[in-house]
Amino acid sequence: MRYIEEFRNRQIISRLVKKLKGLKISLPLNFMEVCGTHTVSFFKFGIDKIIPSQIKIISGPGCPVCVSEEDFIDKAIYYAQNKEMVVVSFADMLRVPGTNSTLEKERAKGADIRLVYSVWQALEMAEENSAKKFLFLAVGFETTAPTVALTVLTAKKRKIKNLFFLLSLKRIPPVMEYLLRDKDLNLQGFICPGHVSAIIGVKPYGLMARKYKAGFCIAGFEPVDILTAIYVLAKQAVNKEFMVFNQYRRLVKEEGNLQAQKILKEVFLIDDVRWRGVGLIPQSGFKFKKFLEFFDIEKILPIPQKIRRKNNVCLCGEVIKGKVSPLECPLFSEKCNPRFPMGPCMVSMEGACHAYYRYQRKN
Fold first, then answer.
1. Residues facing 134 on adjacent strands
2. Per-residue model confidence (pLDDT) at position 363
3. Between 276 and 85, where is the model more confident?
4. Residue 103 sits in which domain range?
5. Same domain assignment for residues 108 and 155
6. Could you count the other beta carbons within 10 Å of the beta carbon of residue 362?
7. What is the pLDDT of residues 192-215, one digit of tens each?
8. Is residue 306 part of a domain?
9. Do residues 21 and 151 both lie within one domain?
10. How many whole angstroms separate alpha carbon 269 and alpha carbon 29?
11. CA dihedral sign, ordered 280, 285, 286, 290
């Protein structure tokens, strides 16, 4: 606990707030965080209440469940309805609405859908029961992708033929660049995701800092971490000196995790993929290399094309892009809440809507 207390120290927090308020901020500053854990910590520790009013922290697309396309859920449901298929998933995905149903509802109807804490459990299930086909819903960012890649290589080595994957793995830097180009957002910088940065390192942000004249600070998740990041970004904006600052050096190395990067390159190619509410972003996702395509369920068992009705009421897409606050959604709280979510941002504890519901709604 002493280690954690160091990053929750009231005196350090007070000094950081004083330094922030001492900056000569003449114009509003918009900074975005793109990690669900940052979203939660920002409100949980009341950081929104102690920073200067000129600074606005916007919640971006930092929840892997939230950015998975509605179409991805529809595909998962299609495969779950196959009697020969066992769908294996992390718990959050079960409640995310598809077009007409959820995996939770399909499970209640009798579909074989099993919850796991790790993709490795899916491999073990497939190895123990060769009579069934097992489909893992691979959702996540650069933090999750290496574990999926390692599992795939292990399955190939062990000659497991009944394990498949439905991919929704995404890369964070391309979506950050997409948002920097959005003039409506007018972003001056990013609080960069700590765990993603532990994998990819510092370099990917440096290119964007120079190109777009924006600040980047890799940060941990405690109050001192986040306040330091906000101060660093605000100081860069005031001085117009934009660069990458690694506040999370206790975990993030300059070069990142080279072993994880090697495994990713061995298994995946970079691909253009769709993000919920955003659309197609070039080079923002992963697909299997040709020699591993027999793990790709969409190659093995293609889904017939169907016209799907999109949910135009839920504003999760706009929340993900930072265009609106969850409080501005007409469904928020009464019609859409953690018990009865109408969109993925309310499902996941790392979703912006869930965080706002827990810490920001009026009682």
1. 86, 163
2. 44
3. 85
4. 70-169+258-300
5. yes
6. 5
7. 999 999 999 999 999 999 999 999
8. no
9. no
10. 37
11. positive
